Amino acid sequence: MRVLQSVVREAKALWADGRGPSLVAIAGGWGILLGARMVYPVLLPYLRESFDISLTVAGFLVTVLWLGSAVGQLPGGVLADRYSERSVMTAGAVVVAAALVVVVTAPTALVLFAATGLVGLGQSLYPIARITILSDIYPDRIGSALGVTMATGDLGQTVLPPVAGVLAAAFVWQAGLLFIVPLLLVAGLFVWATLPSAPDADDAADPAPSAGLRDVVADLRGSNLLFVSFILFLYILIWQSFTGLYPTYLVEVKELSSSAAGLLFSGFFAVGVLVKPLAGAAYDRIGMRNALVAVLVGPIVGLALLPFVEGFWSLAAVTAVVSTMLGSGAITQSFLSEAFSEDVRGTGLGVVRTSVATLGAAGPVLFGGIADRGYFDEGYLLLAAVLVVVVLLTLRLPTSAQSD
Length: 404
Description:
By secondary structure, the protein is mostly helical. It has 20 helices and no strands.
């Protein structure tokens, strides 16, 4: 009962003072963007057949998507510092919609890869602006606000992939992507209509880029930012490796149908809808170290058990255990948003997220290479081992979320 009362109290606080519609717009756009990105793993078996590509090449396609999502975050952060977050996020939604149209009409694998990279680049414009504007709107509840937004992202990843799978099975794989285009355009319009417009020219003036970079470097030296960034890199490497080929693993190794695999994949993110707001609130209350350990211990067990589990319901249980790691994003990114000074928050977040996500994007292609050599099961045991390292590093952090 106390948990329910706490959730209701947090929800009322987030909605208060006219801030609710802005949170809905930001979270809704994020949910559709992430849902669009996670449609790729579900459609990967269809893409492999249509373009005659191996598991390694299929993994590289997912890597291209993640890489595009990573490299644009630094310029996206700079733009968020200098201009209106509304413009940056709206542009991201429109670019992804246009890129998906190119994907579904791609005549060759080369065009498919290029358009997929553009999908990632468009998506990369959104996340930093999302965090910086939430930091301004909710200076006292960034963990909860970001947790709700990220949970909505998981809601999009829960709903859109199975819909795409059904459409692909009933019609053609292109239908599994094309239905997302109007959703993105509506989301972009909602963001544009709800969020504040660009600041005045005098207010928008930022320090010189070199000064801003010096401030970012100073922030990195003065806190646990580098250490947390390395933890975030390892987590992204694990998460992208797991999600990039999990539906394919369920179909080709566990011999589930495509629809059953899509259902389990969406279930992975469905748990995140519940975990992320709780993880964000936990960050605000008990600090980063304790909150991170709580959400990461279970997935170690789940990943280690995965190769030895058979049957839909057993796999569903293991998938649910693994999915608690989704809460770590709300924790680490809340810390990062508070660790940088306000003037360079967007640039600093862009530097960190671009760096760690670019390196982490290597995960799917490396994991695909392991799978191609007949070590699909062993790959998940390797991910469990890396996650053990993440937990051990997390235990070295101070108890307080704000400690340097």
